[in-house]
Amino acid sequence: MKELDEDGLVVRPNKTRLKRELADLQSLVMEIIALGPGDRARLHLDDKFLEGVALAAKMKPSTGRNRQVKYLVKLLQKQDLDQVRHWFETRNSKHAEENRHFHALEQWRDRLVEEGDAALGEFLEQFPQTDRQQLRALIRGAVKEKSTGKPAGAGRKLFRMLRENSVES
C-alpha cells in the first residue's frame, strides 16, 4: 500500500535519500566481504547472505562481482542491521584505541631517547613498576644506535619494554 499525505496524494520516496541508503548498504557489504570467515559468522546474518558473501570474497573485481554485491545489498535490506552496525562500531573503536596506545608508546620511546632523565622521571612516575636499571640500559643503547646510525635493535627492545610495562598498569 502506498503512503499518502494529508491531502490524500501519494507520497513519492526521496530518491536522494534512497540512493544514499543503498550506497551505505553497499559499503557495509564491502566491509563484510573484507572480513574473514570467523568474523562473518559473529555477525549472525542468514546463511544465504553468508554464502553469497563467501562467493563474492573469492571473486576478482569484475562486473560479475559487482552484480553479486548488488544482490547482497538486496538481501541485506531485508535484515535487521543494528547488531551488524554495532559490531563494526565496537571493532573500529577498539582498533582506534589500540592505535592511540601504540602512538603514545612511540612518543614515550622518542622522548626517552631525546630528552633522557627528564622524560625518564615522568615515565617512572606514571609507571612505577618499571625496572629503572633495565630501562636506562635500553635508553643508552637506543641513543648510541641513533648517534652511530645502526639498525634500531635497542630501540625495538625499548619499545617492547614500554609496551609490557604500560599494559600491566
Automatic annotation (TrEMBL):
Gene3D superfamilies in UniProt: PSPTO4464-like domains
GO MF entries: ribosome binding; rRNA binding
Domain of life per record: Bacteria
UniProt keywords, alphabetically: Cytoplasm, Ribosome biogenesis, RNA-binding, rRNA-binding
SUPFAM superfamilies, sorted: PSPTO4464-like (SSF158710)
GO biological process, one term: assembly of large subunit precursor of preribosome
Major localization listed first in the record, in broad terms: cytoplasm
Places the protein is found: Cytoplasm
Keyword rRNA-binding: yes
Cellular component GO terms held in the UniProt record: cytosol
PANTHER family xrefs: UPF0307 PROTEIN YJGA
Function of the protein: Member of a network of 50S ribosomal subunit biogenesis factors which assembles along the 30S-50S interface, preventing incorrect 23S rRNA structures from forming. Promotes peptidyl transferase center (PTC) maturation.
The family this protein is said to belong to: Belongs to the DarP family.
Full protein name: Dual-action ribosomal maturation protein DarP
Organism of provenance: Thiolapillus brandeum
